[in-house]
Specification:
tRNA (5-carboxymethyluridine(34)-5-O)-methyltransferase activity; AlkB_tRNA_MeTrf/Diox; two-stranded parallel ribbon; ALKB8 protein; alpha+beta; 8 helices; methyltransferase; four-stranded mixed β-sheet; transferase
């Protein structure tokens, strides 16, 4: 059984006769202790606070029966590990240009969080905004207007753990055999001008040991394995 926040992705599963439903990873409508195994791939790095990321892992553990296993994958800050570049850095979409390291303050264009048609909850992660939400403040507009995150340049190393990644939706004229997923192209490039609209997705990329430490903070699970895989930090959990 699969679940996703995106109705469109769930509909694709339904078209292929797979069982899937729309839900939020913080509140999965499945009975506690009813799953033999759970997989969470490329989900937890989209939550904007440490508390929410931990709550997502706790919810994953809730679903497992005693002895059940969970596999978690999150995007890694370290895209070059043990002198090996990840596939993400290697795939330059055919570009032969030399790689450049981009500094957060200059090369990566800061983006004001609140934009027309965007949700402040999905994209905002500044400490100031988070503290305002914790205090129960309803009038977050002035705070959001000042909150800025770096916009990541595709296929480059990360210079910030909290960032926005531009996603350019493929146009309707693209060939059918191409992936139904979105395409990443550098902001300001000719390709980015040709593709629209552009959505900025929030990511928190994990440093080495961060995911494992979050998992170990829960009394209900045991970390069986922690490893690095092609630009991702991965953990295998067992429900106690």
């Amino acid at each position: 059984v699969g679940c996703d926040r995106s109705k469109n992705l769930v509909d694709i599963c339904g078209d292929k006769n797979f069982e899937a439903f729309v839900c939020d990873a913080l509140s999965v409508p499945i009975r506690s202790g009813s799953c033999d195994a759970c997989i969470s791939v490329a989900v937890i790095h989209h939550f904007s606070t440490a508390e929410r990321r931990l709550a997502t892992i706790r919810e994953l553990a809730r679903l497992l029966r005693p002895g059940g296993m969970a596999l978690i994958y999150v995007w890694a800050m370290e895209q070059e590990y043990k002198n090996q570049k990840s596939k993400y850095l290697k795939e330059k979409n055919g570009s032969k240009t030399k790689e450049k390291k981009i500094n957060t303050g200059t090369g990566q264009r800061p983006l004001t969080v609140q934009q027309p048609g965007s949700s402040s909850q999905d994209s905002a992660c500044s400490d100031q905004l988070i503290n305002g939400l914790k205090d129960g403040s309803c009038d977050a507009r002035p705070v959001v207007a000042e909150s800025k995150l770096p916009v990541h340049t595709n296929r480059t190393s990360f210079d910030s753990q909290d960032l926005l990644v531009p996603w350019h939706l493929k146009g309707c004229t693209k060939k059918k055999e191409e992936s139904v997923d979105t395409v990443l192209v550098p902001p300001g490039s000719r390709e980015s001008q040709e593709l629209s609209p552009v959505f900025h997705r929030y990511y928190h990329v994990f440093c080495e040991g961060e995911l494992e430490a979050a998992c170990r903070s829960l009394d209900c699970v045991r970390v069986q394995k922690s490893y690095y895989d092609q630009g991702n930090w991965c953990v295998v959990l067992e429900k106690l």
